[in-house]
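Appendix B: complex inputs.
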Amino acid sequence: MNFCSQCGAPVDLAVPPGDNVPRHVCRRCGTIHYQNPRMVIGCIAEWEGRILLCRRAIEPRLGLWTLPAGFMENNETTAQAAARETLEEACAEVEIDRLFALVNVPHIHQVHLFYTARLIGGRFGAGAESLESRLFAEAEIPWQEMAFRSVSFALRAWLDDRRRGVFGLHTTDLAPPPPTPPG
Amino acid sequence: MNFCSQCGAPVDLAVPPGDNVPRHVCRRCGTIHYQNPRMVIGCIAEWEGRILLCRRAIEPRLGLWTLPAGFMENNETTAQAAARETLEEACAEVEIDRLFALVNVPHIHQVHLFYTARLIGGRFGAGAESLESRLFAEAEIPWQEMAFRSVSFALRAWLDDRRRGVFGLHTTDLAPPPPTPPG
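Resulting structure:
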């Protein structure tokens, strides 16, 4: 952030009075521009014992598999965000069940939520951000080609809970991944 | 939003290609400025059967009672946000237990999370944004002077669960409140 979105003047990084975190503060109008984590919301949509995954057509992680998920928008609820993202990315209508996983990813300022859901009518396709969508039985899940650690976490927890016959709420915090070795 | 925070040029409201929601788009550099819901996170801190509430020293709802809670910051987890807000508003250290309530407030672009927690050592005070803090037994809770509906929801659910002896995860969606009658 370089300029004030209210008045267009340059902003400085400064700790406002009574605060203890540096914020972008407008030199002219004094507006304090807070920055807050964003929510990424998706769902674990089941159909006849199989799970719906999408292969990403966009960066990051182009070509890898993910649960349908994306940034929550203003004016919607968390469950509506999960259903909307599934419709957009997998052309699939779902009946949202309940909140299943919350994953903190603090180093990228995100909180990921995953809902359990049931695919309606077994119908799905590939939205603009997906190369393809597919239903996977447990043994078919491409663990080595998963796009995001939060998705692998939620999926493993779901499979474990299905085995036990009891679905809970699962939470975890992700640290930054180790650096990729050069070459 | 009137100006681009990247380059300082005016922004227009327009639906970007492939999108279906109007966004603030910079006339000069083309940056799309997404706006997303913010998380408000707090906790239900218990001590010897009583619950810690704070009386607000700031607007909105100055003078009314609330659970310690506030906007989640970048670079922290949801549980850390709950503990930090409790320290800031009630000068109280807590041991965070688990996620207890998720309340959508879509008309103000917020998602409220409340954690169950245990007050450490029974110590608390009044932070800069609180007039006072106090421990309340169930019969003493000032329901008519509660600052926010999400707080009342979480508190009632907690008291119900304590009565049943089982703590679950509680979710609800709040609609805009009815308009205040004139005069």
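Chain B touches chain A at residues 1-11, 18, 21, 24, 33-39, 71-80, 98-99, 102, 104, 106-107, 109, 111, 128, 169, 171, 173 (CB under 8 Å).
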